[in-house]
Every structure is written in C-alpha cells, then in structure tokens.
Design a protein that fits this description.
This protein has 231 residues and is mainly alpha-helical. It has one domain. It is 73% helix and 3% strand. Bound molecules: protoporphyrin IX containing FE. Protoporphyrin IX containing FE binds next to helix 1, helix 2, helix 4, helix 5 and helix 6.
Length: 231
C-alpha cells in the first residue's frame, strides 16, 4: 500500500500533466481552426491548397501527428487515472458540501468535463476516420492546382457536412468543445499555480472568452457549409 502523501504528490503531478497536455491541445485546436477557416471560401481552392501544403510536409507531418497523438493519449490517460484515484480515495461524496441542487459545483463541473471530453473523443475517432483516412485521389476526389492534381478534401468536407445528421453532430460537439475549453483553460492555469486571488476573475474570464471564441469559430464551419454552400 502506498503512503497517502505519495499519493497526493502523484495526483498533483498528474494534474500538472493534464494541464500542460491540455494547453498543448489548445494550441493545436487554434492552428486547426485557422487552417479550417479557409473552408469559408466557397470555391474550395484555398482549403485544398492548404491541405496539400500540409500533406507536402511528408515526414515532418508524420512526426507532428505522432507527437499530437502522444499528447492526446497523455491527456486522456492522466485524466482517467486521476479520476479513478479520486474515486478510490473518496468512494462516498462529502455530504456537507452538497448544495440544495444536490451536487457540489466541482463535482458537477468535473462530471461535465468527463461527458464533454468523452463525446469529443468519440467525435475525434469518427473525424479522423472520415477525413484523414477518408477517400482520396484514387477514389476520384481530385482537384487541380495549376498543372498539379491534388486531393479534393474540400469536396469530402462539404459532402460530409451537407448530411443533416453529421452537421448536427459536428455542431453539438463544437458547442461541447467550447464548454470543455472554457472550464479546462482556467482549470489548467489553476493546476499550474498561475492563479492568485487578484487574478482569479480575469483569468477565469480569459479562459471563458478563449473557449467561446474557439467554439463559435468551429461552429461557423458546419453552419456555413450546411446552409451557405450549394453543392
Ligand atoms: C467543423 C470543424 C472541423 C472541420 C471541418 C475539420 C476538418 C478536418 C479535416 C479536413 C482534416 C483532415 C486533414 C488532412 O487529412 O489533411 C482534419 C483532421 C483532424 N482534425 Fe479536424 N476539423 C474540425 C474540427 C476539429 C476539432 C474540434 C478537433 C479537435 C478537438 C479536430 C481534430 C483533428 C485531428 C486530430 C485531425 C488529424 C490531424 C492529422 O492527422 O494531421 N478537428 N480535420
């Protein structure tokens, strides 16, 4: 059996890992959104050119993808093992903290984080299968860029998001992503010890603004394609 103090040191360490990996993923999400905003140009050439440029990075892209996968797995793995540890340390919730609504604010926000995080994970598995490993040039998704033939990823994204079920699912996940980031960014800053009583409110607001901007930014894409793009 391990010493309780060793357990709490491990928990603090894991919280720092969750925070750092989470902030790293926020960086990816910002870059991904900026690239995807080219989808709002309706002829698709800007987006296809951007995707072809990424593809052209070859080995460098493969290294970035492996790095990203590692950060995702670290974030998910540390979250799951911290949750398990918390549950085994305190199988019964503290009664005295229960509000009239029957739940503590921290319980409800961590439960919401678990729900939004799980749905984002399900989304990611479907998303990468649909787009990263979806049909390419050999299946007829071909666009021309000057003299060159490149993958018509724009057509694939439009076909996918013109499906009402997909447009609705993507929109739901983008809202959940915004909420996950709104709480997650602020919580990460706290785990890293960056909040002080004086900075608590401004940092909480900053986390909320970043979460909302990213959520709304991503939400614009399925909405624009579903309602605005003719196929
Ligand atoms: C409307 C929203 C989104 C659209 C239209 C979109 C579009 C795409 C496309 C087209 C690709 C394939 C890129 C390629 O194969 O070159 C891709 C890959 C990917 N997307 Fe998204 N995405 C969206 C939201 C998100 C969100 C919110 C996340 C993360 C939370 C995400 C994570 C990823 C990841 C991890 C990859 C694989 C990257 C790689 O392997 O290079 N996407 N996305």
């Amino acid at each position: 059996m391990s010493h309780p103090q060793a357990k709490s040191i491990t928990t603090v360490f894991k919280k720092v890992i969750i925070a750092l990996s989470g902030l790293g993923l926020v960086g990816f999400v910002v870059v991904h959104l900026l690239g995807n905003l080219t989808l709002l140009r309706s002829d698709g050439s800007a987006f296809n050119a951007y995707a072809a440029k990424l593809e052209g990075l070859g080995g460098l892209l493969a290294v970035a993808e492996v790095g990203l996968l590692f950060v995702f797995l670290t974030h998910i793995g540390s979250t799951l093992t911290t949750k398990k540890r918390n549950l085994s340390a305190r199988p019964v919730a503290y009664r005295q903290w229960k509000s009239k609504g029957g739940d503590t604010p921290s319980n409800s926000s961590s439960r919401n984080m678990a729900i939004s995080g799980s749905l984002i994970l399900i989304f990611l598995i479907l998303h990468i299968w649909q787009f990263r490993f979806g049909p390419g040039m050999s299946q007829g998704y071909v666009a021309t860029q000057g003299q060159e033939q490149i993958r018509d990823l724009y057509r694939l994204v439009v076909e996918t998001l013109k499906n009402p079920l997909m447009a609705a699912f993507y929109s739901l996940v983008m809202v959940l992503l915004g909420l996950h980031l709104r709480h997650g960014i602020w919580s990460a800053l706290q785990s890293l010890g960056l909040t002080r009583p004086r900075t608590l409110k401004p940092l909480r607001l900053a986390g909320a603004v970043i979460g909302v901007v990213l959520g709304v930014g991503f939400l614009m894409i399925p909405a624009w394609i579903y309602f605005g793009v003719s196929n």
